[in-house]
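User:
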Amino acid sequence: MSATNTDTTAAAHNAAVVRDLFLERGRTNILRGVSFTLPAGQYSAILGPNGCGKTTLTRVLTGHAFFRSGDVQVLGETIGHTDIRALRQRVSVVNPTASTADHHVSGAVVDAELTATEAVLTGFFGSVGLYDRPTDSQFDAAGHMLQTVGLGHRADLRFALLSTGEQRRCLIARALVNRPQLLILDEPTAGLDLRGRERVLATIEKIMEHNDHCSNSHKTTILMITHHVEELSPRTSQVLLMRDGQFVARGEPDEVITPESLSETFDCKVFVRKTNGRFWLEVLPEAWLDLHKET
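Assistant: Predicted structure:
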C-alpha cells in the first residue's frame, strides 16, 4: 500500500493523527517528538501535570499554534495545507479561560452580557458576541442543548450571573450546538468545587451516552485534557500520559493508570485505585518528605 493510501486509510479511522511533532517557544521546547492518534468516535484523554504541553497541543490541533516540524492531520485535513477556518467549524473547544487579553480560542470566552441562550447561539458562528441573526431552527437547537446540560431554567439569565459551574456547562452546550466532529474539553472543571465538578462530569457523561447511540458517521470524537485522574469517564477508551512535552505512556485505562506510571508522570509517589469504573488517586504520606525537600 502506498504512503498516500495509508494516510487516507488512517484519516478515515482516526479523528486526528499526529506524527513527530516539535514545537518551541523562544528557546524552550514545549512539544518534543509527539506522536499519537485519536480514534474517530471514541473518548480519549490526555493526563499530565500543569505545564507539560497539554493545552499547547490542543492549540496545534485547532491551528492556533505554529510548530517547527511534524505532521498533523485533523478530520482528514493536514494542518498547514487546508482552509483552517473551515476546519475550525468542525471542531469545538471548551476552555475555562475567561480572558481575551492573549488570544481567542473557540469555546473559551463569550460576551458575559449575553443571555445563556445567546451565548449558546454564538457557537454557530464561532464568535464572542452574537453579531448574526440566528434562525428559528438555531434557536430551537440552542434551547435543546441548554436542556441537555441541565440549564433550561437559566435560558434567559445573563451569562455573567450564572455560577462558575453553570457557565462551564453553558460553554459545553455552546460547543455542541453545531454538532462538531471533534470536541476538545481542555480542563473543563478547573476552579470548580466538588459539586460543580461532578455536575460538569455528569453532563459530559450524558453527552457520551447519547454519542454511544449515534451511528459511527455521526459520532463526535471527544478529547479530555486534565491533570486529575478522577475526572476520567468509565467510557474512556484511550489514555495518554504526558510529561515535559512528551508522552510517557499510552493505551487502555487499565493498562496505563497504574501507581508506577502516574508516579513517573507527576513526579510524586502515588497510589491509585479503581471503584465503580472511576480511578482515584492518593498521595502516599512518605511523598510529603520528598516534596518538602524539593522546596
